[in-house]
Amino acid sequence: MTPFLLYIVRGGLYLGLFYAFYLLVMRRTTFFRLNRTVLLVGSYLCLLLPAIRIRTATAAGIATELTMVAAGTETAGETLRAAFPWKEVLLAIYLAGVAATLALFLVSAWKMGRLIRKGEPQEREGCRLVLLDDNIPSFSWRRIVVMGRKDMQENPAIFTHEQMHVRHRHSRDLLLFLPFQLLFWWNPLVWITREELRLLHEYEADESVIQKGIDATQYQLLLVRKAVGEQRFTLASGFQHAKLKNRITMMLKPDSSRWMRWSYLALLPVLAAFMFACNPAQNTEKTPADTPEELSPTTEAAPAAYQVTVVDEPSAVSDKEAVPFQLIEQKPTFNGGDANDFSRWVNGHLTYPEKAKADKVQGRVILQFTVDADGSVRDVKVLRGVREDLDAEALRVVSASPKWTPGMQGGEPVPVIYTFPIIYQLG
User: Fold this and answer.
1) How many domains does one find in the chain?
2) Which of 113, 314, 373, 383 could form a disulfide with 318 if both were Cys (CB 3.0 to 4.6 A apart)?
3) Residue segments in the chain with a per-residue pLDDT below the cut of 70
4) Rounded to 10 degrees, what is the CA torsion of 43, 242, 144, 252?
């Protein structure tokens, strides 16, 4: 998975956790303005959390999860998996979803703009009122209120309601939420929360209307009479909102306890724990004794303390401290490609020792090596072996690696530690 798609997945998980908390704990409270603010601010914070790397210090992590099968034993299924461009397909599907969501937004904006241009505009009480001869559901967008002439004459409370949407700048909230619809269109909680945000707008507008002195009972009856038809535009705030029962219930509900405001603090340790779970540990070097061998029944295990090390001549820049693979800003590349290209190169040069074949020995050899700041491979060693001849062959091939393009940290080349598993498998 590309770094961008990985970021999108992590960001979607943070948003899902945050929105789930709101839907389960805070959606029934009467803190309309607070909930609006927290939903928007918290959403943008969730975009930053995937970029914060929190790690615990344990042992040196595996630099890459590359698995090599000895030459001549790769199966057709593995070849197909390696050849199929999963990353490109996933990225194409994701971008198609972004484009479709953006198209829906633009079509809705165009239809709304066309309708606004048909009406007769006039300035009224801080709003631009657009009156239409058609009997249309009223709506507001930014400082524009669109209504039918008949509604304006017979039901002035509708104009007051739309005026409250304008005064509280509810359309700004919907624009600020648009990036989350585009980036995380695949997450259903994003769409559910968007509807909850619009419902908060209706709650706040209803509350403001009643505070203006309009009789609550008559206002609720007006809501019932006008609650027909569908919302015309997904961008705009409208009087005839679909969740009428929720609006009336919220108008009748007593104010929530002020202590409920502090419920959001309960989310902080949950997000912190999730951040640790989503970030791999920063590891120091493991020894073979730290990682017990997993062997097939026919495999001869190397002694626990067994380790073979091949050390190249130190390069001119090898005095720099090596950086674990997970922490490097710009990863090293092999022959202009990614780490899978190195897997294929090793596979092409690896020879299954004849003695191991005759003894039907299979298993996994885990090597560790450093790609130095000049791109050379050095300090190749066995972290976990199978048998001396299999280990030696793995060391021979990896030690003969051509130079890489070195990893970069802070704009400078630095040594990078890799851990590389090689699976010896008989066909």
Assistant:
1) 2
2) 314
3) 1, 53-84, 227-242, 278-320, 338, 427
4) -80
